[in-house]
Amino acid sequence: NVSLGATSYNVKRTTFFGGKFTTIVTGVSATNYTDTGLTPDITYFYVVSAVSAVGESFTDSAQVSATPVGILLSRNGWTASASVNSGNAKNAIDGNASTRWVNAGFQTSGQWFQVDMGSAQSFYKLVLDATASPNDYPRGYQVQVSGDGINWGSPAAIGDGSSAITTITFASQTARYIRI
Questions:
Q1: How far apart are CA 70 and CA 39, in angstroms?
Q2: 22 φ, ψ to 5°?
Q3: DSSP reduced 3-state for 84
Q4: How does DSSP classify residue 25?
Q5: Is the dihedral of CA 93, 98, 102, 107 positive or negative?
Q6: Fewer C-beta neighbours within 10 Å, C or N terminus of the chain?
Q7: What pLDDT, on the 0 to 100 scale, is given for residue 69?
Q8: Is 89 helix (H, G, I), strand (E, B) or coil?
C-alpha cells in the first residue's frame, strides 16, 4: 500500500523470522518489487520502509515472507539404467506410482542407478520416493553428475536415507547424467 507522503521505499530482507534485516534495494518508486536470484526452498522475510523529503520512516512495515520453489524438470526423453536389474530401471522415472525399479536383492556398496536426461539440465535437489515399497529406501547414497556419462566428478552429495522419501539437496549442478 502507498504510504502517505512517501517518495520512495527501501526493501529489506533476512532469512530468519524476526532476524536482522539488510537493505537490498533503495529508492523503489513503485509499490511492488521483484527480488531475483534467490535460492529455491529458502524462506525469505521482508519489510519495507517509506522515504519522504524528511527521511526514512522510523518503523518498518509488517514482516512478510516468500519461499521460491524450484521448477520440476520434464522427464521427456530421459532414460534410466542401473548396475543391477537395469531392465526395469525405466520404471523409476515413469511418473507412475504403481511401477517401480527394484535392485532384485539386498543393497550392497557399489550399486548404482543412473539417469540420462538427454541434455544438460540444472538442478539442486533429488527426491527418491519409495512410498510404494517403504523399506526400499537407500540406506546410504552418493550423488555424482557427468556431462558425458563417462567422466564423473567428486560427489555432489553423500548421505544416508532414513525413510521412504529421501530428499537430497546440494549446490546447483548442471549436467546431463546423474548417478546415485
A1: 8
A2: -115, 135
A3: coil
A4: E
A5: positive
A6: N
A7: 82
A8: helix
Has residue 70 got a pLDDT over 80? Answer: no
Over 90: is that where the pLDDT of 59 sits? yes
Q: 124-178 pLDDT, tens per residue?
A: 999 998 888 888 888 999 999 999 999 999 999 999 999 999 999 998 899 999 9
Q: E-strand spans in 87-129?
A: 113-129
Rounded to the nearest 5 percent, the helix, strand and coil shares of the chain are: 5, 40, 55
Give the pairing type, strands 22-28 and 113-129. Answer: unpaired
The contacts of residue 132 (CB under 8 Å, 6+ apart) are 97, 98, 100
- pLDDT tens digits, residue range 110-134? 999 999 999 999 999 999 988 888 8
In degrees to the nearest 10, what's the CA dihedral of 21, 27, 33, 37? -60
Query: CA-to-CA distance for 168 and 47, rounded, in angstroms?
Result: 32
Instruction: Go through the chain and tell me how many residues it has.
Output: 180
Count the alpha carbons within 13 Å of 140 in the hemisphere toward its beta carbon: 7
> Which residue is listed with cell 539442486?
124
Q: Looking up cell 520502509, which residue turns up?
A: 49
The C-alpha atoms of residue 92 and residue 94 are separated, in whole angstroms, by 6
Single-letter code of the amino acid located at 129: D
Structure confidence at residue 176 (pLDDT): 98
Backbone angles phi, psi at 117, to 5 degrees: -85, 0
